[in-house]
Specification:
By secondary structure, the chain is an alpha/beta fold. It is 56% helix and 9% strand.
C-alpha cells in the first residue's frame, strides 16, 4: 500500500539518529513542528470524515488524534508513525453502532445510546490490546498472510466507496456494498446537483493532485479540497435551509449537509455504556476491534520503519501497548478506535519529521483548532469529506493492488480475490478465515506435507566456527514462519546463518518475503543471513518473494528440530 519513493533528507545515521527523548524536543523542534502542522492539515478533514462514516459524532476522531499524539510521544518508541482514527476501521465501527441500534439520524436518542455502547466495546478492546502488548504477541502480525491482509484492506476500500458515494452525491442509501456499487449510475443521475458538484469536484481534485508536478507548492490535497469546497458552500448558502429548482426538479440544501461539531469540545465528551459487553454483538466487536485494529497498527508501524531514513525499529509490543492505552482512554471520553495510521504516517516521513514529537504536535494543532475555531470546522461540506473517503477507498482497492498480487503469483491473486469476496459476502473475521483456508488448501495442492503446516521441522549443522546452517524439511509456510523466524533471529545474534531450503517441497510467499526482509535487517547490523537450496525449486513468478515448488519427486528426509 505504500510507495517506495520518498523525499531524500540530509540526515545523520547510526548513533546520531534522532530519538524522541525530551532532550531531542528542542533539538529537532523545527523539523517536527513543521511536519506536525502539515500532517494536522491532512488529519483534520480525514478525522472528521472517518468519524461520520463510522456513525460517531464528527469530533470523536479529533479526540482520538489528540490522545494518539500524547500516547505516541510518551509511551511508544515508534518515531515516525501518526496515531489516530483510520479508514480501515470504518467497516467495524459502523457495523458495531448499527447492530447496537444506530438509525442514521432518524432517532437521535437511539443513535447516542448505540454510540455509548460502541464506546464500551472500545474500552474492552483497548484493554485487550494492552494485554497483547504486555504478553508480547506483536509478532502474531507475521502469521496472517500478506495476500489475505491486502484482500482485507481492498474489501474495506470497496465497502467505503459503496457507503460514501451516495453521501458525496447528497443522497441517503442503505444496503449491501455490492448492491450499492451497482447503484452508482443512479446515484449520479439522482444527485442533489449543488452537493454533487462539490463532491465530484473534490473527488477530481483528490484524484488529479498526485499527477501535478509541483503539487500546488506542497499543500496537502485535502487542504486544497477544503479551500475550494468551503467557499462553494458559502456561495450555495448551505447555512440556511432552502430549496432550489433545476431542470424542473426541486432540491433542498441546508446545515444538515455540513459538519456539526459542538462549540465546546468538553460538552461533546461522551462516556461508555458497558452493558453491551454482555451481548453476542459486544463480544464479536471487541474481538474485531482488538484483532483487526492490532493487526493494522502493527503492519503500518513496520511499513513506516522501512521508510525511516535512520532505519530505527519500532518495538511492536511496546507500540501495541501504547495503542491499547490510547484506545482505552479515547473510548472513555467519546473517541474512535486508533491505530498507527498509514497515510498520515507516510506524510510525516515525507515532510521531514525526525522524532515522535511530530505526532504530538499534530495532535496539539487539532486541539487548538477544535477549541478556538469550531465555527470554521462547521462550514465544511459533508460531500467533500465523503469524496476524500471515496478516494481513500479507491486507493485501498486500486487495480494496482490486483496487479501486484498477480505479479507475485497467480495463487496470490486467488487468495487475494477469495478474501475480498468472502468479506463482502460475510464479514471481516469470516472473510479472513476463508482467505487463510484458501491459502492452506493451495499449499496442500502444491505438495506441502500436512505435518509441515503445524510443526516446523529442521536440522542444525555447524558449517564453521562462525556459521551455522539451518536446514528446513518438508515445507516452509506461513503457519510455521514465526518459530522459524525466532530460531533464525536467535542464531543470528551469535554468528552468521545459512537457511537451507533444499529439502523442502514447497516454500510459500510469506516465508520468502520474511526471509528477504530479515536478510536486509541483519545486513544493516553487519550480520549475514544466506538463503540457499532453491536451485531445484520452480518460482511461481519472477518476483524475488514468489512462492517456490520443488521440481520432480521429493526425496527429503524428515528430521525434527
Amino acid at each position: 500500500m505504500l510507495m517506495n519513493t520518498r523525499t531524500q533528507l540530509d540526515v545523520p545515521s547510526g548513533k546520531n539518529a534522532p530519538e524522541g527523548s525530551f532532550d531531542g524536543l528542542k533539538q529537532y523542534l523545527r523539523y517536527d513542528l513543521v511536519s506536525g502542522f502539515l500532517v494536522f492539515l491532512i488529519a483534520l478533514p480525514l478525522c472528521l470524515g472517518i468519524s461520520l462514516a463510522c456513525g460517531y459524532p464528527a469530533i470523536a476522531g479529533i479526540f482520538t488524534a489528540i490522545i494518539g499524539g500524547l500516547v505516541g510521544a510518551t509511551l511508544s518508541n515508534s518515531e515516525l508513525t501518526i496515531k489516530g482514527p483510520a479508514a480501515g476501521l470504518i467497516v467495524i465501527a459502523i457495523g458495531c453502532v448499527v447492530e447496537f441500534g444506530f438509525t442514521g439520524g432518524r432517532d437521535p436518542a437511539a443513535d447516542f445510546q448505540a454510540y455509548r455502547l460502541a464506546l464500551g466495546v472500545g474500552v474492552a478492546a483497548g484493554i485487550i490490546q494492552i494485554l497483547f502488548g504486555l504478553l508480547r504477541v506483536g509478532i502474531l502480525a507475521e502469521f496472517v498472510p500478506t495476500s489475505v491482509i491486502h484482500g482485507l484492506l481492498a474489501a474495506i476500500g470497496i465497502i467505503i466507496i459503496a457507503k460514501q458515494f451516495p453521501i458525496m452525491m447528497g443522497l441517503s442509501a442503505s444496503g449491501e456494498p455490492l448492491a450499492l456499487l451497482m447503484e452508482i449510475p443512479s446515484f449520479i443521475v439522482d444527485m442533489n446537483p449543488e452537493i454533487g458538484f462539490i463532491g465530484l469536484l473534490s473527488l477530481a481534485i483528490m484524484g488529479a493532485y498526485p499527477f501535478l508536478k509541483n503539487n500546488a507548492l506542497k499543500i496537502p490535497a485535502p487542504v486544497i479540497v477544503l479551500l475550494i469546497a468551503v467557499p462553494l458552500e458559502f456561495y450555495f448558502d448551505f447555512d440556511h435551509p432552502h430549496a432550489y429548482s433545476l431542470n424542473h426538479h426541486d432540491y433542498r440544501v441546508g446545515p444538515n449537509f455540513l459538519v456539526n461539531v459542538p462549540l465546546s469540545m468538553f460538552n461533546a465528551m461522551a462516556f461508555p455504556d458497558f452493558s453491551g459487553l454482555l451481548t453476542l454483538t459486544g463480544v464479536k466487536y471487541v474481538i474485531l476491534f482488538a484483532l483487526i485494529g492490532s493487526l493494522e497498527s502493527l503492519l503500518n508501524a513496520k511499513a513506516i520503519d522501512c521508510l525511516d531514513p535512520w532505519k530505527r525499529k519500532t518495538n511492536l509490543d511496546r507500540d501495541l501497548t501504547a495503542v491499547g492505552i490510547g484506545n482505552t482512554v479515547a473510548a472513555c471520553v467519546g473517541g474512535l478506535p486508533m491505530i498507527s495510521e498509514i497515510v498520515r504516517s507516510k506524510a510525516n516521513v515525507d515532510n521531514g519529521a525526525h522524532t515522535r514529537f511530530a505526532n504530538l504536535y499534530h495532535g496539539l494543532f487539532l486541539l487548538v483548532s477544535v477549541a478556538l475555531v469550531p465555527g470554521l470546522i462547521n462550514e465544511i461540506p459533508l460531500a467533500a469529506l465523503a469524496a476524500m473517503l471515496v478516494y481513500t477507498g479507491f486507493r485501498l482497492a486500486a487495480p494496482q493492488e490486483f496487479l501486484h498480487a498477480y505479479h507475485i503469483g497467480k495463487e496470490q491473486l486467488l487468495i487475494f480475490i477469495s478474501t475480498i469476496i468472502a468479506i463482502l459476502a460475510t464479514d471481516l473475521l469470516i472473510g479472513i478465515g476463508i482467505g487463510i483456508t484458501v491459502k492452506i488448501l493451495l499449499h496442500i495442492v502444491n505438495g506441502a506435507p500436512l505435518i509441515s503446516l503445524v510443526r516446523l521441522t529442521y536440522v542444525l549443522c555447524p558449517v564453521s566456527d562462525r556459521k551455522t546452517r539451518l536446514s528446513v524439511k518438508g515445507a516452509a509456510v506461513f503457519t510455521t514462519w514465526i518459530p522459524l523466524r525466532r530460531r533464525l533471529h536467535d542464531l543470528a545474534q551469535q554468528q552468521d546463518v545459512e537457511v537451507d531450503l533444499s529439502a523442502t517441497r514447497f516454500v510459500d510467499h510469506t516465508v520468502m518475503a520474511g526471509l528477504h526482509e530479515m536478510q536486509a535487517d541483519l545486513a544493516s547490523q553487519n550480520r549475514t543471513l544466506t538463503i540457499s537450496g532453491l536451485d531445484q525449486h520452480r518460482p511461481f513468478s519472477e518476483d524475488v518473494a514468489a512462492a517456490r515448488k520443488k521440481k520432480g519427486n521429493y526425496s527429503g528426509v524428515q528430521a525434527e528440530g
